[in-house]
Amino acid sequence: MGVKIIATGAYVPSYRVSNTDLECLLDTTDEWIQQRTGIISRHISQGENTSDLGYYAAKMAIEQANIDVAKIDFIIVATMSADYNTPSTACLIQEKLDANNAFACDINAACSGFVYALHIARSLMDYSTNGYGLVIGSEVMSKLLNWNDRSTAILFGDGAGCVLLEKSVKSNLLSHVLHSDGEKGLSLCAVENPVCNPFVDNEKEVLPFLRMNGRDIFNFSTRQIPTLILETVEKAECTLDDIDYFLIHQANLRIIELVAKKLDVPLDKFPTNVEHYGNTSSASIPILLDELIQQRKIVLNGECTILMAGFGGGLTWGALLIRI
Ligand code: UT7
Fold this sequence. Notes:
The protein is of the alpha/beta class. The chain is 32% helix and 25% strand. It is built from 10 helices and 13 strands. The strands form 4 sheets. The chain has a 5-stranded mixed β-sheet with strand order 1-7-6-4-5, with helices on both faces. It has a 4-stranded mixed β-sheet with strand order 8-13-12-11, sandwiched between helices. Helix 3 (50-65) packs across helix 4 and helix 7 (214-235) crosses helix 8. The longest helix is centred in the C-terminal third of the chain and has 22 residues, at 214-235. The radius of gyration is 19 Å and the shape is globular. The protein starts with a strand and ends with a strand. It binds oxa(dethia)-CoA (UT7). The site of oxa(dethia)-CoA (UT7) has 20 residues, from helix 2, helix 6 and helix 7.
């Protein structure tokens, strides 16, 4: 049994913040941001939360496929910026969609979240009754940021992307490779939740925002992602030439360019949109996929082979090779 993507959706808040806008807030320049990251602007929420963005993306996919929401068996949301610790963002979206027959839960694998969630969804589909499931990557990263820290505040944006899956006889997921390395987890962490009750003495300083050692993450990703891609391709017994598009987590244009160079694959097989959205964590790959489908560069006819690769907090990294 396998899964196939039958529709996609994406949503970003309407408020666009350019690098020049950020020059008024932080000791930074448009030139520095563009040179080091490729980012020109990002969309920032002015109130819509993670479940709202995810809901709009999911609604778009459901409308496109024109299926009855009652047939959706599960909703998995990849996020590191949930509305609440509980209820999960997935349950909030289930309520907004009226998808009453679906079970719903979040997973957190930071910027690798969408790839992890899609792999989990494939396994869940074996037990699905009606044969439909939603996988959503949704983030309001702006609420995790320290807006006085120029080394992180310029990098991230808010947004959501979604795929609607249908059970299929043929397995369209050709291979997957997922990795985690908790030992290096503190290179990228966000919002510490320490034990706080009347029985503990809490003198400890708590991390209220996202903190990242950018250089460590840059080196980790440019070292691990080419290896990860080769591992995934080898597992499916195909070659890099068989892949139409490489959808790499949109963290930084320089990372994507270096990965393409290391693999000796033409850069035009690595579509990007980090320029306009910044790093939207678990939402970056599904937003990009939806954009390529809207531009008709990808058609959902079972003839396009794409490799999705995510990396980030945890540390986590993972890839899927999929025919869509
Ligand atoms: O989703 C996955 C998680 N994140 C990532 O993938 C991020 C990976 N890392 C990166 O993309 C890059 O490391 C950054 C873009 C974050 C930083 O680029 P870098 O080339 O590694 O710069 P750096 O941190 O080594 O900083 C170089 C200089 C420093 O000044 P000094 O010490 O050389 O005087 C920083 O203080 O640039 C300074 N700097 C800035 N200057 C202007 C740092 N941030 C800024 C800024 N504007 N926004």
